[in-house]
Amino acid sequence: MSKKYYIIDFDSTFTQVEALDELARISLREHPEREQIYQKIEDLTNLAMEGKLSFRESLAGRVQLLEANRDHLQQLVKHLKKQVSTSFSRNKKFFKHHADDVLIVSGGFKEFITPVVLPFHIKKENIYANTFVFNEAGKIVGYDEANPLSNEGGKVKLLHELQLQGEIHGIGDGYSDFQLKESGMIKKFYAFTENIERKSVIEKADHVTPSLDEFLYVNKLPSAISYPKNRIRCVVVGHVPDTVTKYMKKEGYAVKHTDSLEEKHIADAAIIIMGNKESISAKKLVLATKLKVIGYLGKSKHHIPHEQCTAMGVLIFDHAGKPEAIAKRIARFIDNGDSFKSSNFPNMQLPELKSGHRFIHIYRNAPGTMSLVNQVFATHGINITAQFLMTNKLIGYVVTDIDGAYDKQLVKDLKGIDGAVSFRVLY
């Protein structure tokens, strides 16, 4: 089996922003024409990322406009550390376990890239980027023009020089990242769209990855979450404020807004958020085989069949206050398993799991079921670090935290317990 390498871009991929654009905002803060200069720098960035301007011309133009020094760079680094992409932040373990396989390859500059990526266990020798040239006063006056990454097609030239022996995958948001695939240097190019979507890049990608979680999932690599949020369909029905939709999109869910709930929407929905006075019939609810949770902006009792939802393992959250509060409760349930303030489920507030795995198990409330659950863990030699259980007349809701690895058969056995209604692995 050949070794795999992962070539990762920095700007708008590892971080949420373009670092040179941010450096301009820091260094030109007091400049009387700062807004016009910001726009020029941003335009130069986008033209290069879309393949409409050579990288060399774009880089030279941006550096010339910066008016930056070493002090500004220190401020930039502090800012960038807070701007690491959300899905990268939660997947530090991936970088730790694959420290030998991950290369940061960027047209940006080592002076700000290195201090941002080193805390992610990325090796210094695996960071490839440009370097600034300073004058005696510490002002940036240029860059090392001999560095291949300062030229058009620089990433391709660099990989030719490195002669990596193995299967190479590239992740990035710009045209220079796609050039690696175009050149035949890498097996697959993943267009990273968590921060920005460039149509010209997406059209050429082997796979669009809205988060690092998606990339890890399709490549069967260890991830902080078991299932990428961009694959979780959230259907928003009726009059629901934009703040709710925006929150769910920001969380990474695939959001679909519709005026009425039709059968075609129900089958794929894991989350349904409904405006006040909207309803779902018992007949339609049967079709919702993937549904995990319903959020209702109002009182749902006369609009949603509560007992049927409970028997199906579907949580309901009602809310009459700030609309975005319902979105936060749903996200908390999906992320952590909290059922607190549910209208139909046993209410549980759970601690966050710092390490290990969390299993959510919903089963029909019958004597002896919990002993069957724990017997499965014992049979597989699994050490339970914490377990939380609450019941109502219809179902039991049990959350189990374990440390260490587990195999697929454990999941099959837990799903196969008599009386099991629903089961999912959180992380």
Automatic annotation (TrEMBL):
It comes from Chitinophaga lutea. Its EC number is 3.1.3.3. GO terms for cellular component: cytoplasm. This is phosphoserine phosphatase. Its cofactor is Mg(2+). It catalyses: O-phospho-D-serine + H2O = D-serine + phosphate; O-phospho-L-serine + H2O = L-serine + phosphate. PANTHER family: PHOSPHOSERINE PHOSPHATASE. It holds the Pfam family ACT_AHAS_ss. Residues 56-83 form a coiled coil. The lineage of its organism: Bacteria, Pseudomonadati, Bacteroidota, Chitinophagia, Chitinophagales. It is an enzyme of class 3 (hydrolase). Pathway: Amino-acid biosynthesis; L-serine biosynthesis; L-serine from 3-phospho-D-glycerate: step 3/3. The keyword Disulfide bond does not apply. InterPro entries: ACT-like_dom_sf (IPR045865), AHAS_small-like_ACT (IPR054480), HAD-like_SerB (IPR050582), HAD-like_sf (IPR036412), HAD_sf (IPR023214). Keywords: Amino-acid biosynthesis, Coiled coil, Hydrolase, Magnesium, Metal-binding, Serine biosynthesis. The keyword Coiled coil applies. One of its GO terms (molecular function) is L-phosphoserine phosphatase activity. One of its GO terms (biological process) is L-serine biosynthetic process. Residues 360-418 form the Acetolactate synthase small subunit-like ACT domain. It comes from the Bacteria.
